[in-house]
Write a structure and sequence with these properties.
There is one protein chain. Helix content is about 50%, strand content about 15%. The protein is an alpha/beta fold and about 240 residues long. The protein has 2 domains: about 160 residues, no CATH class; about 60 residues, no CATH class. The strands form 2 sheets. Strands 1, 2, 3, 4, 5 and 6 form a 6-stranded mixed β-sheet that branches. A hairpin with a 2-residue loop joins β5 and β6. The longest helix is centred in the middle third of the chain and has 40 residues. The chain is elongated and about 90 Å long.
Length: about 240
Amino acid sequence: MMTASESPITVLDRLEASCQEGGSLVVHAGIHRILDSCYLDLNESAFFTVLAREKPPTVFVQARQYDPDAFIRSVMISEGWDASFEDDPQSVWPSPADVAEQLSEQLAGCAHYAGTTCSVLATYAVGGLNRICWITSDWANDLSDAIILACERRHLIQASRQQATAQALEGLIEEIANDPKFRAIRGRPKRLLYVEKVYGDRIPTDPRGRVSRPAQNCSLVDNNLAIVLIKADDRTSVEDF
């Protein structure tokens, strides 16, 4: 994505005029996942130069008009967000509404751009290789960067949650390893039943829903439960030895 020396709408007008002159058909379409392919990323000057030289039969164009809600969602999706995260209580992603609230002042400053063309993506292929020119307004680039920064805070939230979980598990492991009733039980399967019964409601579940088997003859259980059991069992084994 590049910032143009001209506005996206001016570039679009030039593109349509250039294609008409060169005999290329301009097709407005939704363009998806093209950046996952092999392509030439060209600035506007280079794109118009090769366009005039190669004269492709068809040039596909996607012009996007600014809508604040759609803009926020499109940027978040490009960063890996999915709408299903809004219904996931374990998700560290902000919702589009959260992002809009964080950037309320910046969004207010962009309100007068509503309905105007904020970006133009033009592409055509020659010999299986896409030529791409993606032009975005300065203000749209700045807003996109701000949205990405707001989403980046999820990493801090995730790290904080992981640290809190690790501390909670460590405290439980120590408590269980020193529990006389736990130490008196022989065999990890029986110890698993005891830990589930006595401490199960205090062990946070794995946020990803992962399960594991704490011993060969044990059933699959929540990953955090397995970690607590294994480490407590190992500590008592070392101390007993």
